[in-house]
Amino acid sequence: MKRRTFLTGSAAAVAGLSVDPVFSHAATTDRQPLTVTDLENSAAQLRSRFSRDFDPAYIENAILPFFLVSVYQGERAMLPMIDEALSKENALPTYLWGLISESWRPAPEKGVTVFLQGLDKRGPDNRRKRIYMSAVTPDLYQEMYSAKVTAFFEGLLSKGNAGKPLMRLYLDTFWDMYWDLHLGVSGDAIPAKVRQIGMSFNTVLAYLDPTQRIVYENYMVVRDNLDFLKSWIGERLADLETGKTPHPQKTFAWYWLKNGEGDDNFAHKDVVFECFHNFVAFSQWGNSLYNMMLRLGTATGDPDTRASFAKTMKGSFDSAGESSFSPLDRFVMELFRIISPNSGSISSLQETSPPAFERSGYIISPHTSTSLDPVHWKNPEEFDPSRYERVPTSAQVDEKHVERIGMARCPFEKTSFDVKDGRKASMHNSAFGTVFGVADGNPLPVCDHAGFAPFGFGYRRCPGEQLTINAFEDFLRTVWKNKIGFVKLNLAQAEVLPIGPMTVIRDDLGFAGSA
Q1: pLDDT band at 451; cut points 50, 70, 90
Q2: Cα separation of 259 and 267, whole Å?
Q3: What are the backbone dihedrals phi and psi of residue 73, each rounded to the nearest 5 degrees, phi first?
Q4: Are 415 and 427 in contact (CB under 8 A)?
Q5: Is the pLDDT of residue 311 over 70?
Q6: Handedness of CA 364, 369, 371, 376 (dihedral sign)
Q7: CA distance 58 to 63
Q8: Which one in 177, 243, 268, 349 has a CA-CA gap of 20 to 30 Å to 294?
């Protein structure tokens, strides 16, 4: 075994064999630098410690690398963009690669996701990102996706579920919506294995520590079924292409296939990969939903948020007027600013000289603290959706905007990509690199301001941002229509549930009833 491979994960001595989540590792230490012999001994200790309970390949590729991951907190952004030096290329802690790759390592020849791809690998003008976003632009949402999302929330908040713990119900029904949106299948058309791999994937992300038995068991469920999942997705894509699946244009994958056709920057294998890597992005819907319900709860919530919700819904909540965003848009945006679906954008870092052993370093560009930075907002702690009436949008951030703030030139050249799916639509970008759609001549912009950071920055901004905002607007329409009030349930023993990345809760939140 090569020395660099042998030493993978052996920095356990530095961490004192800690099993705290990787994102909690201390940033500094008073320990003396370790010798190569120290590292080898630490690796041997770890193998011995876990060998009775864990598969050897899992120890080598998940547990040992876990102790060699360093994650650093980055600075709060002053502008809504992220530097290209902070790369997205393979920006995944090494111990998690086994969830998406049979070889436990990056394998781009078998498909890749834009979420783990550097800008230089995405094709001209961030092409891969534009093709991904072509499937989730707001002009598609109402006609193609809203009915599926609304039906899911109507079922979750139906009268029969009043007084029941909501998050177990959410997890049990979520995968029908997920696969219906991606591939147009639901119910019995989704094999039990496919449902299980999704649940197991999310469980790993929630607990995150590979030394825990629950993580190991669910991690191996994912690995055991990866080939089956990819084959099943491939078959469903064929059904979309041949017309076997009804209304194929009401799926994300149909747009990826159409707009990526003949383009090596979004090949067929990449469509397969995106369909299951979206487990990561959509897992954040669980913790977002839970935190929104808490904030709106009768006893758990924030009075200002509840008052703002009532004010919004009693007015013309879907009418933007002369603003770029409707009142409901602004309310949901403010919810996301306050609660943030995830803590930050993770970037991979390259060491300035070759290390003596394999290790990984990442930096987090923070979302929540940037969204609450008083540099960007007056009274950032207040819940105030009206703040988005005055913010610059991606359609407005052009050369003149850049000149006004004192820059000599635009950080990103403005270009466009015309879709191939039959719409009169194209994917543009702002001067900060933020991609947005233009449909029938109408811009579909996002808030291009560093103070609105829950979905990231610039060319790295989450391509599913607008879809997520639209979906949670449908959730809140359902809440308002059915007069839902969220309450803590008096349960002797609430079930412990993994509901999102690094989020495990006691399932004791429900609603009092519906009209």
Answers
A1: very high
A2: 10
A3: -80, 125
A4: no
A5: yes
A6: negative
A7: 7
A8: 177
Q: Which of 453, 479, 472, 481 is nearest to 76 (CA)?
A: 453
Q: Is the pLDDT of residue 103 over 90?
A: yes
What is the Cα–Cα distance from 60 to 238, expressed in whole angstroms? 37
Number of H helices, E strands in the chain: 18, 11
pLDDT higher for 4 or 190?
190
- What tokens appear for 5 in the block? 């491979």
CA–CA gap between residue 187 and residue 439 (Å, rounded): 33
Query: What are the tokens at 204?
Result: 């790993």
At which residue do the structure tokens 């015309």 appear? 418
User: Which pLDDT score is estimated for 32?
Assistant: 60
- What is the spatial distance between Cα 505 and Cα 116, in angstroms, rounded to a whole number? 28
Torsion sign, CA atoms 470, 475, 476, 482: positive
Mean pLDDT score of the chain: 91
For 31-35, 122-126, 165-169, which range has the lowest pLDDT when averaged over its residues?
A: 31-35
Tokens of 255: 């747009």
Q: Which of 458, 405, 388 is nearest to 430 (CA)?
A: 458
pLDDT at 34: 59
Residues 163-187 have a mean pLDDT of: 97
Round to whole Å and give the CA distance between 437 and 456: 17
Q: Which residues lie closer than 8 Å to 475 by C-beta, 6 or more apart? A: 149, 153, 289, 292
CA atoms 312, 313, 314, 317: torsion sign:
positive
Amino acid at 157: L
3-state per-residue secondary structure call for 184-249: CCCHHHCCHHHHHHHHHHHHHHHHCCCCCHHHHHHHHHHHHHHHHHHHHHHHHHHHHHHCCCCCHH
Task: Go through 360-376 and write b for each residue having 16 or more CB atoms within 10 A of its CB, e for each that does not.
Answer: bebbbbbbbebbbbeeb
Whole-structure pTM value: 0.91
Structure-token pair, residue 100: 């998406």
Tell which residue, 325, 347, 349, has the closest CA to residue 337.
325
Q: Percentage of residues in the chain with pLDDT exceeding 70?
A: 92
What distance separates the 2 farthest-apart alpha carbons in the chain?
A: 69
Residue 439's H or E segment, with its range, is strand 435-439
Residue appearing with tokens 């969830």: 99
Encoded tokens for 259: 């707009």
The tally of CA atoms less than 13 A away on the side-chain side of residue 41 is 8
